[in-house]
């Protein structure tokens, strides 16, 4: 079983979309996908209604997800930890205890746009267009990740 964790700040906008997209592209008997936030401010909450709406518009149901905060133990549980932006990357790698744990942390858009150092913008304070843009970015990135991980899995 390969375990994948998606991370954003609050675990209510970007990472729930990334989790839903990734789950839809991988075989659930071979892969486990989860999401978390670097902040615990929304612990136990469902994803933002705008994330739920854009997911639904694209045939995904993320309504059963609940926000949680990243735990130190997650480094032991997950093989890949994808973060949405540089701030998430800095926060997550600062919790890593070893270089091996740090190597698990990857900015998600680096998979689809290598060497461009792009961030998935936080759409929380914006409108529907921001969520649509984030969805498209994550859809492309998760396509690349799913193909790579599924082909390299032992």
UniProtKB/TrEMBL annotation:
Assigned EC number: 3.1.3.48
Residues annotated as domain Phosphotyrosine protein phosphatase I: 2-148
Entry keyword set: Hydrolase, Protein phosphatase
EC top class, as a word: hydrolase
Molecular function in Gene Ontology: protein tyrosine phosphatase activity
Family that this chain belongs to: Belongs to the low molecular weight phosphotyrosine protein phosphatase family.
Pfam family, one: LMWPc
Descriptive protein name: protein-tyrosine-phosphatase
CDD domains the UniProt entry points to: LMWPTP
UniProt xrefs under InterPro entries: LMW_PTPase, Ptyr_pPase, Ptyr_pPase_sf, Tyr_phospatase_low_mol_wt
Residue numbers annotated as active site: 8, 14, 122
């Amino acid at each position: 079983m390969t375990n994948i964790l998606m991370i954003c700040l609050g675990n209510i906008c970007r990472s729930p979309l990334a989790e839903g997209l990734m789950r839809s592209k991988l075989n659930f008997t071979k892969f486990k996908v989860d999401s978390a936030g670097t902040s615990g401010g929304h612990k136990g909450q469902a994803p933002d209604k705008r994330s739920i709406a854009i997911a639904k518009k694209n045939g995904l149901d993320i309504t059963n997800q609940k926000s949680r905060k990243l735990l130190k133990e997650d480094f032991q549980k997950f093989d890949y930890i994808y973060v949405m932006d540089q701030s998430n990357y800095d926060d997550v790698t600062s919790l890593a205890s070893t270089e091996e744990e740090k190597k698990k942390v990857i900015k998600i858009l680096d998979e689809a746009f290598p060497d461009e150092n792009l961030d998935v913008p936080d759409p929380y304070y914006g409108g529907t267009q921001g969520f649509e843009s984030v969805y498209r970015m994550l859809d492309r990135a998760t396509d690349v990740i799913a193909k790579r991980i599924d082909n390299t899995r032992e």
